[in-house]
Design a protein that fits this description.
Blueprint lengths: L1 H10 L1 H19 L10 E2 L5 H4 L1 E2 L3 H8 L3 H19 L1 H12 L3 H12 L6 H11 L6 H10 L10 H29 L3 H9 L4 H25 L7 H7 L5 H4 L2 H10 L8 H30 L5
Antiparallel strand pairs: 1-2
Helix pairs in contact: 4-16, 5-10, 6-10, 7-10, 8-13, 10-12, 12-16, 13-15, 15-16
Length: 307
């Protein structure tokens, strides 16, 4: 077996050279940093370094769970991530199914291009657009509200409940066209003979979507759902941090923003690298457990899984 592998590498060395760069990237930026994960179990100081810092075991984890806002942060993270999955996961599937039904290829391509273009807008620009539109004085929201009621409305970003909806639905608007590309690719591989047989049997377009298209993309949707389940606790900090203020902090403080503030001292406090690493490690472990559980359930119920 080793000889066959060696012979294959020699015969196709150019291909393996292409694989070398991503392999080096994976080792340097994903495996080497794992050495620093032990900071979570130490009282880390820059002067002492990783190996010279005092070993404190699980003290950093205990400290996090004893903080006054620990469970609020975890609840906010799960709420925002769960809301994003429940509201945002079906929309790309529905959009792909509807777009696949269009017969005019020109309009189909135009709609697809328009819907996935927001994906390439940077987070800073997206948040800037949200702040401008939702401004209660000079924004589109404030201007229309003043014309209709004669009064200026309250700032929606100052309302914790509104913040959650605003964050989730602007994210769905930005990403649903891009996420639909995977399902459109899966739909393009559906055997046309299945549709022809369904038409002969008298199936309507709606029935063909339910009985032909949807079952064919179900394995792809299952894999995407498993991957999403593995990032339930990982809500990206950039957009939330830029939208965050003192009024909505009760709903917008999540694990990623809390770790960012702890690790870099963004709140004016002394950076606590050990506590920040411990929280990040806890976050990763929970994500690993979730993706493993969801993968096992999917494998048992549908025989579709990542491993």
């Amino acid at each position: 077996m080793n000889r066959k592998l060696l012979r294959r590498i020699i015969n196709h060395w150019q291909i393996y050279c292409f694989l070398l760069l991503p392999l080096i990237y994976l080792i340097l930026f994903h495996y080497v940093p794992m050495v620093g994960a032990q900071i979570a179990f130490r009282k880390f100081t820059i002067r002492s370094g990783i190996w010279g810092s005092k070993w404190v075991g699980l003290d950093n984890f205990t400290r996090f769970f004893k903080t006054y806002n620990c469970w609020t942060i975890i609840k906010n993270t799960i709420t925002i991530s769960g809301y994003s999955i429940l509201a945002g996961f079906p929309i790309p599937i529905i959009f792909a199914l509807l777009l696949n039904c269009m017969r005019q290829e020109r309009y189909k391509k135009a709609i697809q291009t328009i819907t996935y273009m927001p994906h390439f807008i940077s987070t800073v620009v997206i948040v800037g657009m949200i702040l401008q539109i939702c401004n209660p004085r000079v924004g589109l929201y404030g201007t229309f509200a003043h014309l209709l009621t004669g009064k200026y409305p309250n700032d929606p970003l100052g309302n914790p409940t509104v913040f959650t909806h605003l964050y989730v639905w602007t994210g769905i608007w930005q990403q649903f066209g891009w996420n639909a590309i995977v399902y459109l690719a899966a739909l393009s591989s559906v055997d046309p003979q299945l549709h022809e047989a369904a038409i002969i049997d008298g199936a309507s377009r709606w029935k063909r979507i339910l009985q032909v298209d949807l079952p064919c993309i179900l394995p792809t949707a299952t894999i995407m759902l498993i991957l999403r389940a593995g990032s339930v606790m990982s809500v990206g900090y950039e957009k939330i941090y830029l939208m965050q203020n003192d009024l909505n902090i009760g709903a917008s403080e999540v694990i990623s923003t809390y770790v960012y503030k702890l690790g870099l001292g963004a709140s004016g406090k002394i950076p606590n690298y050990s506590l920040a690493t411990a929280i990040g490690l806890f976050n990763s472990v929970v994500n690993l457990v979730l993706i493993s559980v969801v993968n096992a359930i999917s494998k048992k119920m549908s025989e579709t899984s990542l491993w």
